[in-house]
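Sample pair:
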Amino acid sequence: MLEPIPETTPETTPESSAVTKEILPSPLRSLTGALIAGAFAWGLYKLTQAIATSFATKPITSTNPLALSISAAVRTLVVGASTLATGIFAIAAVSLILLAFQVAFQSKKTKLIP
């Protein structure tokens, strides 16, 4: 027969109840992340371009309407997924650049105000 498990409450320590100060990333760290994300976006853009060009230059050689529909759907999905990944990395790169500017200006504000 199973015995009930006694209820336990987590103990609060001074460290866990203290207010934690949020530390912003440095502008250099944000710009490094933006550079990496931008490189991924550029690479994925070139990959998307190559995939789309390859699909455009190689037509589907089938007379079956079902095969034509399926291959068109697969090609659309492949180009769409690649474009989506490119967009996500590009947006991340731009966002990290904007974060670097925000952190840089916030640190200057806090240094001016005592």
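Residues 25-112 form one domain.
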